[in-house]
Design brief:
Largest sheet: 11 strands, mixed
Low-confidence stretches: none
Structural class: alpha/beta
CATH class of the largest domain: Alpha Beta
Strand content: 15-25%
CATH superfamily of the largest domain: Isopropylmalate Dehydrogenase
Number of helices: 12
Strand order of the largest sheet: 3-2-1-4-11-10-5-6-9-7-8
Number of domains: 2
Length: about 325
């Protein structure tokens, strides 16, 4: 049975939504949850019938959002440190945290270690695309400075993530640039383009709009650009939602239309709601780490746990290591 360590103290709203999300996940799937955090705060939130199904590892310290990520290695009594250590020691298969993302990524990389052949892990975002699909975008924040070899590794990791997690037999990979032509891009992307030329599934340069058009399954970029794309996309989605609500509020005709379009609005919300996905996996590490949004509700935590279980079950890491070994041996 898959064992998932869950940082119960991570997130903006304390342990309550984390514990509720864990219970919701247990109602749907069999796994061994390990809640890590302040035991005296977690226990009262557990219904009696779940107390023998959920393990608790006591941790007195909590790394706050305003704390420096560099302090995470020193704070060995923190909930995220102890959750990551469970994976490192083989006592858990994956970790889920809605806490300090920098601390989670730093600890997962440095304590759990990188997969063989991976120089830098990457953070993955699943972007909404036409046709009800998701475009896998990486890196979205783990590495602000990259070289061309890093982008090649991201392409390999993204390809196997698409293949194993979404069942795409032959995933296509695009390199994010300021134009589709081979000559477009900066020095980094031009060099990466050359190195990716012979890689399976590589279709060449893609533009920002292609992320949402579903032009390819995987889009590769450095973490600086990827994070800007992610945050800008979140801002656009939020602004559009705001304008829709404002126009509906001001117009009686729009109110009538909105009532008729309720199903459409509900489906749109599902496409852009982070809770539907649960979190962003940090791929390229030994084990599994899902980085969830600080404002995660129980639904988001439940889906983050599901994502971790699937990641472990599909053997993504083994496939990435084998492919990179084949590339390095050529």
């Amino acid at each position: 049975m898959v064992r998932i360590a869950i940082d119960a103290m991570g997130g903006d709203f304390g342990p309550e939504p984390i514990v509720k999300g864990c219970i919701e996940a247990l109602k749907k799937k069999k796994f061994q949850p390990i809640l890590v955090g302040k035991k005296d705060e977690i226990l009262p939130l557990l219904p009696k019938r779940y107390k023998d199904k959920i393990s608790i590892v006591d941790a007195d310290d909590v790394i706050g959002m305003s704390d420096a990520a560099t302090d995470a290695l020193k704070r060995r009594e923190s909930s995220i440190y102890k959750a990551v250590e469970l994976v490192r020691k083989g006592e858990a298969d994956g970790v889920v945290s809605a806490g300090h993302s920098g601390a989670t990524m730093s600890l997962a990389t440095l304590r759990m270690g990188r997969l063989k052949g991976v120089s830098r892990p990457a953070l993955v975002a699943l972007m909404p695309a036409k046709g009800g699909r998701r475009t896998i975008l990486l890196d979205v924040g783990a590495n602000v400075d990259c070289n061309a070899s890093n982008l090649v590794e991201f392409a390999v990791m993204g390809r196997f993530y698409a293949k194993d997690m979404f069942g795409i037999e032959t995933p296509t990979v695009g390199l994010l640039a300021n134009g589709e032509e081979d000559s477009k891009g900066n020095e980094l992307t031009k060099e990466a383009f050359i190195q990716l030329g012979s890689h399976e599934g590589f279709i060449g340069n893609v533009e920002g709009s292609d992320i949402f058009n579903g032009t390819c399954n995987v889009v590769v970029c450095d973490g600086f650009v990827g994070n800007l794309v992610l945050k800008a996309s979140e801002g656009v989605a939020s602004t559009i939602s705001f304008f829709i609500k404002e126009y509906i509020r001001k117009s009686p005709i729009a109110i009538t239309g909105a009532l008729l379009m309720r199903k459409v609005f509900r489906l749109l919300k599902q496409e852009i709601d982070y809770a539907e996905i649960g979190g962003a996996p940090l791929i390229g590490i030994k084990g599994c780490a899902i980085v969830s949004h600080g404002k995660s509700n129980p639904k988001a935590i439940k889906n983050a746990i599901f994502q971790a279980i699937t990641y472990v079950d599909t053997g993504v890491n083994d496939h990435i290591e084998k492919c990179l070994a084949d590339i390095n041996n050529k």
